[in-house]
Description:
This protein is an alpha/beta fold.
Amino acid sequence: MNILIEQGRVIDPKNAVDRENTSIFIVDGKIAGLGAAPAGFVAEQTLDARGCVVCPGLIDLGARLNSIEAELAAAVAGGVTTVVVPPDADPPLDEPELADRLVHRGEEIGKARVLPLGALTLGLKGERLSELAGLRKAGCIGFSQAKVPVVDTEALLRAMEYAATFDFPVFLHPQDYWLSRNGIAHGGEMASRLGLAGIPVAAETIAIATIVQLVRDTGCRVHLTRLSSAAGVHLVEQAMNEGLPISFDVGIHHLLLTENDIGFFNPHARFCPPLRTQHDRDGLSQAVVRGLAAICSDHTPVAADDKLLPFGEAKPGATGLEVLLPLTLNWAESAGVSLSDALARITCAPAAILGLASGSLAIGAAADICIFDPEESWPLTVDAIHSRGKNSPWLGYMMNGRVKRTLVGGKVVF
């Protein structure tokens, strides 16, 4: 189908494009023209984008699909056109058949693109390697332990050696098991005051130091997920400056909240890794400002009953797909970041980490597009959330920036 998107502000960070009152022409699911119509173009569908920003579809590096239909609907409602899915499903994605089924189910639903991460070890137990080659053929973009640590460092070394042999990327959550196993909140003054068991920053930095050394030894490509501390950023930046194949992302919640947002044991503010200090938040923010890291939603839908429990028993996580864009805009305003640079952190930056050609509005690129009104405000209520998880520390708050249309492969899916 030929689609015309009329008179929007087109922002394509990857190609340094920021043009007012510009039209996009789509033919057979691909970008065919920007500003000027291709020869013989006749629009079969026209979308009015006046007053809106037209940008590449958002790419989320971490979103759990507890209910795939609802969560993919939440993704496109938030302008997210590609989601990377961690392997900690039930059962874990440790067999090619499971990954193949997830990819095909995503295609059947026809919303956002689904890129699964295969389980690095069988059952995520950190012992025996999964069938990595078979999982890769089944559509896995990389391999991960999700938030389950590999306690046996030798097992992690062997896994990384094998992955490096085939240039398979490995996604690791840097958190030392022994220092974090009983923790609930950041190990600091707030946790002490509330009587909560703490997780020190050392849990992250010790894990990062171990992973960095293993990368030196193996050459394995590693992406570190959801960094939470300024000290952790410093270690990773040193490794990047050394030329090691390491990248990382930051959850949007950690760019806007601190340990103080726990308040009086607010279960919506329980995350893994935990919210840390203002110093840590500033360090994470500066890393993203400088383009060292991508932003992700860390979308974790949690049942209402699991958030009604006391803070220490409540499941960590929050819904993130539908608020990734407005919260990123919120962060950008507070950090003094341009709209184009902010959008880069959730479009072309994650695409580069994944080795994808997406996250762009270049001629010939797949027409994965988000159209949003940057000025429209809307209340985040339970009824407004498409996800099965209605949990968010921003429930009742006003969000600035609303998605109007989402296209995946030239098809309007929202």
